[in-house]
């Protein structure tokens, strides 16, 4: 079937989606195996040590049947899988709610945090990268490069702690944690409060995320500034700003956007740590709590959802590269 | 031109103190010595790291305790060094295991035909699809947490990137002219691998191995920080930092600041050593 110049892309999208689905199923199997292999007993995790001691044998057997202790793993996986396809991910032991609704709430919280950090780190990193590349070897380049290398070695959770020390403990201008003030009804929380609680976690994630994109953009910028057409533009007396706008931007914007889409996995990893430090009620915090308290269904659900997010990001990155860059669009990158 | 005054700026030669090669060697040497010192001192510290002394608790950093003391009167410098040395040992072990896995899989993907390649590439995509920290949590959870869990999790999850690099290198090598000529000259496969391929791939492997350390160490610390790693009685760097969290609001900033800085410095040094090693070995990046 040929539908003009985009047929290659269409084919590629279909192929990618099939691949993503196969990978997602594999992720769910891998996670399921890992979660099932755990020595943590789901019944014990569900009712606790005291409950274990007071439970009658019949009830215990009922619970064991409910959690499928004696069902073979393959059957258990199949049950989980068919449920998952229909939108039922089981129920969380920790929150005593369906996993799907827990994940929905946490996902929204995390998305606010991650998107803010994602956009900020992308814009700032891009800007820094251009400046550093433009003034290669000057003090500003050295400062930006040094900063990026330092940040790349910085533990995310430590940076979060340092920011808490500075802004919450020392200057006392921002709250220490959580997404809303303590002791306030959810309905009464103003937008301002939510933003106030978002600043520090988002700042931490942004600062960490900047390093990668800055270094990448800087490299590209240096490459492009060495091209003949830039030299010619300079010879014609064009200003730096106009060179960036008319010649450099087109070339470096795409790789930067691509990189930013491909970095979702890292931002997610960072958000796990940041949410832990700030007690921010997002997916990362939920994953940690689920892991610590033996809530297998929730952990499984989060693993699959986050993998879907990562694969989606990678797909967008690959597509953007092809759709916007005419050299690749006309080429055979999708074959 | 006898008149030195007429030399233009372009011609003026400024002698550098050290050339780039010696400078790089200096980086490697000083970085390694520093890291070795942390490891050795941390190992020898022994019980000071867990000795409590209630007459000296909550001390600000001063001469006798440069990093201060915690709420149980334990010396934070000793704890930090001890924790760092544990992290370095785990990091070393984990990166060696991961690098070996990467070497085997990378070589297999590049040499054993299209099907094997497709399977291994698919596995790389699979492992890289789960956010790394979440994968670490899952593996640690599967193994019932604790030291064993964190060591295994960090060791078996760091191979994908290096596998890709090694696979790419070998695929490229197979198409290189000098390898093809060697084949045409009738050299045996074994000889080509030993004489032409390994000398090219091994340095890349070594650099990749060293550059895995920082990731492994950071991930170990992060996992421990989240509560999945080392047990609380161990002075792991992640434990120290997560304990310090409770005391931050009391204004005990030194509990978090210095251990974190040591962790960051260690990671940075491993990065510098690895990067310098690459400069020494890889001619393409020598002038960067």
Task: Please characterize this protein's 3D structure.
Chain A: It is a multi-pass membrane protein. Chain A: Keywords: Cell membrane, Membrane, Transmembrane, Transmembrane helix, Transport. Chain A: The chain crosses the membrane at residues 12-35, 117-135, 156-178, 198-215, 252-278, 298-321. The complex is a heterodimer of chains A (335) and B (288). The longest helix of chain A is centred in the middle third of the chain and has 36 residues, at 99-134. Chain A has 335 residues and is an all-alpha fold. Among the domains of chain A are: 39-88, no CATH class; 108-155 and 209-334, MetI-like fold. A two-stranded antiparallel sheet of chain A has the order 1-2. Chain A has 14 helices and two strands. The radius of gyration of chain A is 25 Å and the shape is globular. The mean pLDDT of chain A is 82. The longest helix of chain B is centred in the C-terminal third of the chain and has 38 residues, at 189-226. Helix content of chain B is 70%, strand content 0%. The radius of gyration of chain B is 24 Å and the shape is flat. Chain B contains ten helices and no strands. Chain B has a single domain (40-46, 79-286), classed as MetI-like fold, CATH 1.10.3720.10. Chain B has 288 residues and is mostly helical. The interface between A and B is large, with 50 and 41 residues.
């Amino acid at each position: 079937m040929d539908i003009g110049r985009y047929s290659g892309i269409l084919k590629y999208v279909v192929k990618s989606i099939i691949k993503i689905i196969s990978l997602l199923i594999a992720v769910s199997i891998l996670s399921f195996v890992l979660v099932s292999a755990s020595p943590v007993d789901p019944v014990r995790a569900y009712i606790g040590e005291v409950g274990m001691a007071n439970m009658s044998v019949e009830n215990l057997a009922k619970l064991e049947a409910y959690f499928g202790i004696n069902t073979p793993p393959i059957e258990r996986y199949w049950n989980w899988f068919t449920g998952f396809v229909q939108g039922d991910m089981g129920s969380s032991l920790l929150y005593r709610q369906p996993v799907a609704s827990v994940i929905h709430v946490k996902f929204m919280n995390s998305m606010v945090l991650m998107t803010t950090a994602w956009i900020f780190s992308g814009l700032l990193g891009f800007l820094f990268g251009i400046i550093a590349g433009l003034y290669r070897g000057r003090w500003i380049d050295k400062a930006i490069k040094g900063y990026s290398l330092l940040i790349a070695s910085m533990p995310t959770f430590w940076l979060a702690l340092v920011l808490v020390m500075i802004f919450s403990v020392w200057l006392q201008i921002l709250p220490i944690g959580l997404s809303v003030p303590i002791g306030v009804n959810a309905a009464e929380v103003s937008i301002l409060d939510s933003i106030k609680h978002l600043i520090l976690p988002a700042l931490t994630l942004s600062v960490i995320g900047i390093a990668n994109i800055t270094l990448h953009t800087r490299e590209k910028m240096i490459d492009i500034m060495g091209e003949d057409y830039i030299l010619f533009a300079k010879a014609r007396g064009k200003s730096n700003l106009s060179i960036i706008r008319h010649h450099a931007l087109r070339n470096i914007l795409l790789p930067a956007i691509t990189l930013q889409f491909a970095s979702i996995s890292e931002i997610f990893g960072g958000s796990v740590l940041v949410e832990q430090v700030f007690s921010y009620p997002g997916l990362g915090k939920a994953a940690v709590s689920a892991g610590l308290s033996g809530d297998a269904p929730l952990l499984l659900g989060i693993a699959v959802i986050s993998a879907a997010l990562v694969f989606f990001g990678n797909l967008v990155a690959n597509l953007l590269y092809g759709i916007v860059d005419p050299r690749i669009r006309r080429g055979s990158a999708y074959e | 031109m006898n008149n030195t005054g007429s030399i233009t700026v372009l011609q003026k030669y400024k002698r550098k103190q050290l050339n780039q090669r010696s400078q790089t060697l200096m980086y490697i040497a000083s970085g390694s010595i520093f890291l070795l010192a942390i490891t050795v001192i941390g190992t020898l510290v022994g019980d000071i790291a867990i000795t409590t002394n209630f007459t000296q608790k909550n001390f600000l950093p001063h001469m006798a305790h440069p990093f201060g003391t915690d709420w149980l009167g334990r010396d934070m410098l000793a704890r930090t060094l001890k924790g760092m040395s544990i992290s370095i040992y785990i990091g070393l072990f984990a990166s060696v295991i991961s690098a070996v896995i990467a070497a085997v899989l990378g070589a297999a993907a590049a040499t054993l035909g299209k099907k094997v390649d497709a399977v291994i590439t698919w596995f790389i995509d699979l492992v890289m699809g789960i956010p790394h920290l979440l994968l670490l949590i899952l593996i640690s959870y599967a193994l019932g947490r604790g030291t064993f869990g964190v060591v295994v999790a960090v060791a078996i999850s760091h191979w994908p990137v290096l596998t890709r690099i090694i696979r790419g290198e070998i695929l490229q090598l197979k198409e290189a002219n000098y390898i093809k000529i060697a084949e045409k000259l009738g050299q045996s496969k074994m000889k080509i691998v030993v004489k032409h391929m390994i000398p090219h791939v091994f340095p890349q492997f070594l650099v990749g191995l060293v550059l895995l350390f920082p990731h492994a160490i950071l991930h170990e610390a992060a996992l421990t920080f989240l509560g999945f790693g080392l047990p609380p009685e161990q002075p792991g760097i992640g434990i120290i930092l997560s304990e310090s969290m409770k005391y931050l609001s009391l204004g005990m900033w030194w509990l978090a600041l210095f251990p974190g800085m040591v962790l960051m410095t260690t990671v940075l040094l491993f990065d510098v050593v690895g990067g310098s090693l690459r400069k020494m070995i890889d001619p393409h990046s020598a002038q960067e």
